[in-house]
């Protein structure tokens, strides 16, 4: 396994942490923010129902699943950017394994 510089490891950890915080914040806002402002959002309709009702019944779950998918795609891109992907690891180790 390739050794990674501390600055690169810190930048990788910082980037991954920022992504997690952003997506959890979005999940929190769509779950609780819409409920907190339900009276305001009741003036909007989505798919024939009031927006706050839709978000409480399905919308928050749909957005949370989209956040999970986007997090996976962006995390793969971050891994490749920092040289942490399966192909790079296989080429570095050349099939060698380490017994502990």
From TrEMBL:
Pfam families: DUF4212. InterPro entries: Na_symporter_ssu. Keywords: Membrane, Transmembrane, Transmembrane helix. Residues 10-85 form the Sodium symporter small subunit domain. It comes from the Bacteria. The chain crosses the membrane at residues 20-41, 53-74. This is Putative solute:sodium symporter small subunit. It comes from Alteribacillus bidgolensis.
């Amino acid at each position: 396994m390739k050794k990674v510089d501390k600055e690169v490891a810190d930048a990788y950890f910082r980037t991954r942490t920022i992504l997690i915080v952003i997506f959890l914040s979005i999940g929190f806002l769509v779950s609780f923010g819409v409920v907190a402002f339900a009276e305001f959002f009741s003036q909007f309709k989505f798919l024939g129902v009031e927006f706050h009702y839709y978000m409480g019944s399905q919308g928050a779950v749909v957005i949370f699943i989209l956040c999970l998918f986007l997090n996976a795609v962006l995390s793969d891109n971050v891994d490749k950017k920092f040289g942490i992907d399966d192909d790079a690891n296989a080429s570095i180790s050349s099939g060698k394994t380490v017994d502990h």
